[in-house]
Design goal:
Layout lengths: L15 H6 L6 H29 L3 H10 L1 H10 L6 H10 L7 H29 L4 H14 L16 E2 L12 H7 L1 E2 L1 H14 L4 E4 L6 E4 L7 E3 L5 E3 L14 H16 L5 H17 L8 H18 L5 H14 L4 H8 L6
Parallel strand pairs: 1-2
Antiparallel strand pairs: 3-4, 5-6
Length: 356
C-alpha cells in the first residue's frame, strides 16, 4: 500500500474554533479584542451561575420539608430512641440538619477528626505530666485537655487573634452556631453545653471518662470517678474548681435525652426571636421526638410539650404548608383551649384565610 505523507501547515490554527478565537500573530489589536472577548465570556458565565444559584435557592417551605426528611433528622430520631443515646451522636445530628442536603457522615467526620486531633495533643501532654508529676490521672488529663483547648494560661489574650484556642463566646452568646458542635469546633467558640461536650469527649479519648453536669444556667464537667473532688468549667477556659464536687450532690448528669432537650431548648429560644419558621419548626419537631421517649417527663415537661405543639402549628401557618393544613388547624385549636388567656392569640391565627 502506498503511504501518503500528510503535511500539517503549522501556521494554520488546528481547528475552526481556534481560527475564530485565536488572535493573529503580532497583532496587538487582535490581542486586545481577544482579551476583551474572554473577559466578556467570563462575565456572562458568572452571571448565568449567579442566576442559577438564585433560582435554586429554596423557599422557606421547601427548606422545612428538606430538613424534615433529611438523613440528620432520621439519625436524631433513631439516636434518642436508643436505650442509651450517645451524646456526641445527638450533637452531630443536631448540627448536621443545618446541612440537610449533605450526608451525615460529612458532619461526623469534621467533628471526630477535630476531636481526635485535640485528644492526641492532650494525651501526649498527659503522659508527660503523669511521668513527672504527682497528681491523679483524672486531674492530669483534665489539665492536659485544658491546655490543648485553651492554652497553658487559660483563655488566649483577647488581642491575639492568631491563637486557635477555644473560648466561651461571651460576645455573641446567642449565635446559633454556638449550639452546633461542628461550628463550635470550626470557630473555636461555644456556649457551656457544647464547650463541655468537646472537653468531656477529649478527656475520654485521652483515657479518662468525664460527664456533663446539669447545673442550672450553666454546665460543668466532672470525672466519672466520684472519688475525684474537682469539676471543670469548660466555658470558663477549663478552670479547675477544686473540692467543688461535694457542693453538687443534687445535680444530675446531663446526658442522652436531657442533653438533647437542653441543646434544642437553647436553639428554640434563639429562633423564636427571629423570622425563620423552617429552623424553628425543625427545633420543636425534634423536641417532640425527645418528648416521645421521655415517658417520665423529666427532660421535656408537659408545659414545654404544649408550647412546642403550638409552635408547630404557628410555623406551619407561617409556611403555608398545604400538605399539613389539617394538622396545623388541629394544633392551633388545641392551643386555643390549652393556653387560657393566651388563647386569644390563637383565635386570631385561626381566622387566617389559609385555614378557612
Amino acid at each position: 500500500m502506498q503511504k501518503t505523507n500528510v503535511v500539517i501547515d503549522k501556521k494554520q490554527p488546528a481547528s475552526r474554533f481556534a481560527s475564530l478565537t485565536a488572535p493573529k500573530k503580532h497583532s496587538k489589536v487582535a490581542l486586545r479584542d481577544y482579551a476583551a472577548f474572554i473577559t466578556m465570556l467570563r462575565g456572562a458565565i458568572g452571571l448565568v451561575l449567579l442566576l442559577l444559584s438564585k433560582s435554586a435557592a429554596l423557599t422557606p417551605l421547601q427548606d422545612a420539608r428538606l430538613r424534615s426528611s433529611c438523613e440528620a433528622r432520621q439519625a436524631f430520631a433513631a439516636e434518642v430512641a436508643r436505650p442509651k443515646p450517645d451524646d456526641l451522636a445527638i450533637a452531630i445530628a443536631v448540627a448536621a440538619e443545618e446541612h440537610p442536603d449533605e450526608p451525615l457522615s460529612a458532619c461526623r467526620k469534621r467533628v471526630t477528626d477535630a476531636l481526635d486531633e485535640l485528644a492526641a495533643r492532650a494525651t501526649t501532654r498527659a503522659r508527660l505530666e503523669l511521668m513527672l508529676g504527682d497528681r491523679s490521672g483524672a486531674a492530669v488529663v483534665a489539665r492536659a485537655v485544658g491546655a490543648a483547648m485553651f492554652g497553658d494560661q487559660g483563655l488566649p489574650e483577647e488581642n491575639n487573634t492568631s491563637i486557635e484556642f477555644f473560648a466561651g463566646d461571651v460576645d455573641d452568646y446567642y449565635n446559633p452556631a454556638n449550639s452546633l458542635i461542628d461550628e463550635v469546633i470550626r470557630r473555636r467558640r461555644g456556649i457551656p453545653i457544647t464547650m463541655s461536650l468537646v472537653f468531656a469527649r477529649a478527656c475520654a479519648a485521652a483515657g479518662t471518662p468525664f460527664s456533663l453536669l446539669n447545673t442550672p444556667m450553666h454546665v460543668l464537667v466532672a470525672p466519672d470517678d466520684t472519688s475525684e473532688t474537682f469539676v471543670v468549667d469548660a466555658f470558663g477556659g477549663g478552670n479547675v474548681l477544686e473540692n467543688a464536687r461535694g457542693q453538687l450532690t443534687d445535680v444530675s448528669p446531663l446526658e442522652g435525652l436531657s442533653l438533647a432537650a437542653r441543646m434544642l431548648r437553647n436553639l428554640r429560644m434563639i429562633y423564636e426571636k427571629g423570622e425563620d419558621p423552617a429552623r424553628l419548626l425543625g427545633v420543636v419537631e425534634r423536641t417532640l421526638l425527645v418528648a416521645e421517649q421521655d415517658v417520665e417527663m423529666r427532660c421535656v415537661p408537659e408545659r414545654e410539650r404544649a408550647h412546642c405543639r403550638a409552635t408547630v402549628g404557628v410555623c406551619l401557618l407561617a409556611l403555608r404548608d398545604e400538605d399539613r393544613r389539617d394538622e396545623c388547624l388541629g394544633l392551633l385549636r388545641a392551643a386555643k383551649q390549652e393556653f387560657g388567656e393566651g388563647g386569644k392569640f390563637f383565635r386570631m391565627l385561626l381566622a387566617d384565610p389559609f385555614l378557612n
